[in-house]
Amino acid sequence: MTDLQKTVESTADSESQSTSDASTWPTADSPSQPIPVTPATPVGTRPNAPDIRLHRGALGAVKAGDVVVSVGAIGAARADRVSVQVGSIGAAAAREIRVSTGGVGAIAAQNVQLEQSLVRTVVAQRVTLGRGAGAGIIVAARVDGDGRALLDWRGGLAAGTILALVWLVVRRLR
Does residue 107 register a pLDDT over 90? Predict the structure, then answer.
């Protein structure tokens, strides 16, 4: 059984808002009126976005303020903060991501912390690889910790140069 708890801070604004954004889109029947523009929020989340806590379950896609996964899986997550303990996420975009004993396909974030986890691709400002953590490709301004990266930006540059040279040689031989 999936135990999904969705908490929303109670404000008059969030109570009156519909969960579907379809009601805010103009339709062919409605008169043409200007659409109000609101300032951008970080990482595309709404100001009063709900917090999602998933324990022993799975979700397809999530867009929330904070996402906490414990013994579960999420296909895609877009949030301010994402935390995974004994779980997996296909792709995650957030300001801050922490994965402990889990796996992630792709990460795009400002700050990433990994402990005993595997990640295929990380694009971040700062990555901390704890004990037992590993990543396939890391593109980051700063990488710290004891974990292992299969390919960082320097290795990617070297591999790209070698592949380009091999491609040129093969092309000349034809």
Answer: yes
User: Is the per-residue pLDDT at 91 higher than 50?
Assistant: yes
Residue 159 lies in a domain: yes
Residue 42 counted as domain residue = yes
d(CA 39, CA 36): 10
Q: Is residue 23 domain-resident?
A: no
Residues 6 or more apart from 121 whose CB is under 8 A from it? 105, 106, 107, 135, 136, 137
**Domain span holding position 138:** 38-173
Cα–Cα distance for residue pair 12/9, rounded to 1 Å: 10
Q: Which two tokens stand for residue 85?
A: 């303990």
Examine residue 105 and state whether it is found in any structural domain, yes or no: yes
Q: Output the CA angle 26-31-34, nearest 5 degrees.
A: 65
- Nearest-angstrom CA–CA distance, 125 and 133: 18
Rounded to whole angstroms, the Cα distance separating 134 from 116 reads 8
Cα→Cα distances 100→55, 73, 115, Å: 15, 13, 5
Number of domains in the chain: 1
Per-residue pLDDT reduced to its tens digit, 119-146 = 999 999 999 999 999 999 898 889 999 8
Top pLDDT among 154 and 112 is at 112
